[in-house]
Amino acid sequence: MRNHVNAKHLDQIRAEVLQDRGANKPCITVCGGTGCHTQGAEVLVGVFREEVRKQGIEESVDIRITGCHGFCERGPIVVIHPEGIFYEKTKIKDVEKIVTETIVNKNIVETLLYRDLSTKKRIVREKDIPFYNQQKRIVLGNNGLIDPTDIRDYIALNGYQALVKVLRDMTPEEVIAEIKASGLRGRGGAGFPTGKKWEICRSTVSDMKYVICNADEGDPGAFMDRSVLEGNPHCIIEGMIIGAYAIGASAGFIYVRTEYPLAVKHVKIALKLAREYGLLGESVLGSGFKFDIQVFQGAGAFVSGEETSLMASIEGQRSFPRPRPPFPTQVGLWGKPTTINNVETWANIPHIIANGADWYSKIGTDNSKGTKIFSLVGKINNTGLVEVPMGITLRQIVYDIGGGIKSEKRIKKKFKAIQTGGPSGGCIPENMLDLPIDYDTLAKAGSIMGSGGMIVMDEDTCMVDVARYFLNFTQEESCGKCSPCRIGTVQMVEILNRITQGKGEEADIERLENLANTIKTHSLCGLGQTAPNPVLTTLRYFRSEYLLHVKEKHCPASVCKALIEYRVVPEKCTGCQRCVSVCPTGAITGPRAQLHNLDPSKCIKCRACYEICHFDAIAGDAIVIRSKGRSADEQTK
Amino acid sequence: MTNKDYIDIFSGLKGEEGDLIPILQRIHEKFRYIPEEAIKQMSLFLKISENQIFGVASFYSQFKFVEPGKCTIKVCMGTACHVRGSQSILEEFKRWLHIEPGQTTDNKLFTLETVNCLGACALGPIVVFDRDYHGQMRIKEVEELIQKYRSENERESEAVV
Prior knowledge:
heterodimer, A: alpha/beta, Ubiquitin-like (UB roll), 5 domains, five-stranded mixed beta sheet, 19 strands, B: Glutaredoxin, four-stranded mixed beta sheet, 7 helices
């Protein structure tokens, strides 16, 4: 099959851009993701522009603000192409040196290079840094190369060629067959086979169909989707147009959460440009296929991430979920068949079409194909976004890519758990670090893949407190429609509050388990059905911690406020008076150069003294936090 | 607020039920909260009851019904910030401002809010003053930031006089 497609202008743009740039023209790219943005990336770009103008070389060097590079820990990140030289934590004062040394004189600025955590050696190229060289960046790969507000950048890197191929050479059925063969499963968390979803939607007869991109990334600690929306919006749009062609939809929505202003801005720009270039509208690339997309901003409700709630929100209602079946593929937005996929799922589509299902299905495990993006955060050295093939172990992610656990003031900390899947997921303990990650193994471990949040926890994290944190979150975000979730989560939070306040009893643990199982089996939507997971997994793997809280009123991580106290260690206190000056309640007293005294009855446990003492290299940790009711030598901390 | 303001806000929309949330967002953008008068105007435009509008608006945490203070402080309570001590940072703000999250100080200067995640996890614990991000916050910096904004505001008000 060969349909009429007018894509000559795309080829022309690609040729122009490539010719203008040449293979060796230097390009300074500054990461513009939210992480680097908040650390001053935008100002930095301005200073670079000014500097090359000052040196009179603006014609021979490109400067580009790109999407998120993923290595947020090291921001603001500057990468010099074509060599791929990686400069970290770049400041305004470094700009002149980079331009003079690296761009003009072709030298490396050693002090700005990343230093390997174990070998302590400086690394020049981005691709040689352990954080990057063990990843497989299919979706994120172009983020660092293109300016997301310039469609020509995306086109130059073969952007929209998958769409051309689909419209020119493939029938909708062939597209669906290709996606099915690739083995792609939904990246929003549940892992439903994407091709199958499309097939059901295609076979449902209707005068109107919709596609929706679920970009309501609500899990705290997860920002994969935001990074793609901000950094490479066109690959999502291309995926959606292909999906719409396959199922026969003529309208689409991108539902973005309002907390992501930069993502909203970039997506809106991208849609406008796509229309101008004939990629959206009455006849996509002159093929006669009609399709357009509009942006819908969420309004700050976590439950809107659930597909039926999301549609209610677009319809102008409260974000209430409804029972399924019927599934949205049959009865969706305004009652019409609707395909809802997550950002990352849509972003995978152009790659699958361009490289073939065979290529894609060779990546990953038997039942989980391709790569997955995780946001690696918490007590980890290399905070950032990692894209890895399915089947990689948690240990590889935490230690090889993540660089291991962050030390605190030269004190090495021990790994305790990794939390995957956000409020719907669970905590996985150290002895399961060799678990290969895919949808099924994570489910077996009691957690879920979820959208891809990974929060690393060390020995200073209290697992009961973590469970309480997540339950508190889901309880606040419960929409209130069904009673197991609305009432059950409140009961669970009350019990967990009691335990962390030292008022728990042994029977509370059984009560928690009973409630958890009831909520899991009887709730209406995914929010309630998965809400108890953080409690169930911590009970499964860290039961002893619950028992210590309940039986001995002891918090081994020294986190739960009611169970801890602050003390001054006499041997370490130098009497520097810094803690005295920061204490807001006058609980610490003592003359200079003499041992200070801390009055527990006045102490409000605000942590100010601990922090100031902790950061003082001379005194060291003279102020310590200890669990009450245990003698100092019984404690590790 | 004049009728023309509402005409601007409603421009380009057909007045369908699906327009409700986008309109609420436009109003919120303009006033930083949803005034009672706006709900009346919306009811006329969309031909749905004020009750229904309030029901939808109050469901979403983005919409507020009381005018916020001059500066909104958002403390991120995402998981990454939580394990790095955001709860203590929030306590410190509450202690200095004598308000709970969602409330505004008597002098209408500060509104304290919590957010679920800002997605800048590498910088946790993180606090946002209006649009300024302050990453890797320490307890002591809470007071310093509050004082800084207070004195800046005083300077501004004096300049106006």
